[in-house]
Amino acid sequence: MGSHQKGERGGSSNGSGGGAMVVDKGVDFAQYFCTYAFLYHQKEMLSDRVRMDAYFNAIFENKHHFKGKTVLDVGAGSGILAMWSAQAGARKVYAVEATKMSGHAQTLVKANNLQDVVEVLEGSMEDVTLPEKVDVIISEWMGYFLLRESMFDSVICARDRWLKPGGVMYPSHARMWMAPIRSGLGDQKKSDYDGAMNDWYAFTEDTKEYYGVDMSALTKSFSEEQMKYYLQTSLWQNLHPHQVIGTAAIIKEIDCLTATVNDILKVKSDFLSSITFENTRLCGFGGWFDVHFRGSEVNPAQREIELTTAPSVDNGTHWGQQVFLLHPPVHVIEGDVLSVSFTMDRSKENHRLMEVELGCEIKQSSSKQPPPIRNKYYIE
Ligand SMILES: C[S@@+](CC[C@H](N)C(=O)[O-])C[C@H]1O[C@@H](n2cnc3c(N)ncnc32)[C@H](O)[C@@H]1O
């Protein structure tokens, strides 16, 4: 996990919807929640201007959703969203946070004189009991490529238990996007992998010569391990828009008011993308997401706000984009059409991590068709 990776929201058992797996709470806490208990980690999120501006504007430009209302902040962290909700006029805000960060949130609530409105509750959302139902559920639940961390499960659980009929979700909608990209990163990763294998060959020879044991029976396993690490693990990147070489496609849409856990367990999309660059290398695919604050049909926003993590020069986010590299890259020209099949499932070992299968057929304007691509990736 790189320095940009968010915490691992490991798992309590997620009861809503079919297919949910039973997760050891202790393991989940150790693997996932632990990082959120650190201020440096909350600070990283609080310093993301795109994220902060979107939530701030969504709340303060739609005060009608908050004035005199009850609000639930799922995964309150430092309590920032709960405090803004109170400042926007909420009558009562429940700020639920699983980690000891709740203590810091409590300190901030008092320091900002909001203790009569904001009640901080330490505990897992799935286990907390509120004294009343709420008008608004607000949460920043999005992980890398939207669904990593699987935290939306907890928001769904909260919504089904605690949102009044006609209540509003903040954010209200989410989408996942994918596009073909060019990047020098693939060459670097391939050379890292080759270096690791050369080192292994030297190691097996030395071990045989000096210690009399032949380790080369493990070469295949070592190669698979290194391949997963260098070539099959998706990478965090803040892509420049010029690195996107074809049309982007929406691969998943979520209505936060109605989605079930079943709806988000798997992402499956077949899409076409046209190359828009004259003459370039297809080095892989970039994935990102956006969320919208639109209120609901019966209770719409006065001003809709968008939070996008698309490649951008000035508005990068701590989520960046997830990059799935192709080895080797393929030469493509403007007008070539990529027929892509994308599947993302939760890892069986850790439901907060994802596994991806990506197939791509390239229909080139020239007569020679490159062989179809089928790769497996891990979002760790
Ligand atoms: C991405 S952070 C957002 C923090 C804060 N709301 C903000 O916007 O700055 C998510 C927080 O949710 C907490 N969290 C995740 N799942 C939770 C659950 N099931 N119950 C309570 N807290 C949870 C994490 O510990 C973390 O502090």
From TrEMBL:
Q: Which domain of life is it from?
A: Eukaryota
Please list the residue ranges annotated as the Methyltransferase domain: 71-167
Q: Which Gene3D superfamilies match?
A: Hnrnp arginine n-methyltransferase1 (2.70.160.11), Vaccinia Virus protein VP39 (3.40.50.150)
The keyword Cell membrane is annotated on this UniProt entry: no
InterPro entries noted in UniProt: Arg_MeTrfase (IPR025799), Methyltransf_25 (IPR041698), PRMT_dom (IPR055135), SAM-dependent_MTases_sf (IPR029063)
Show the catalytic activity.
L-arginyl-[protein] + 2 S-adenosyl-L-methionine = N(omega),N(omega)-dimethyl-L-arginyl-[protein] + 2 S-adenosyl-L-homocysteine + 2 H(+)
Its cellular-component GO annotations read: nucleus
Q: What is this protein called?
A: Protein arginine N-methyltransferase PRMT10
Species assigned in the record: Salix dunnii
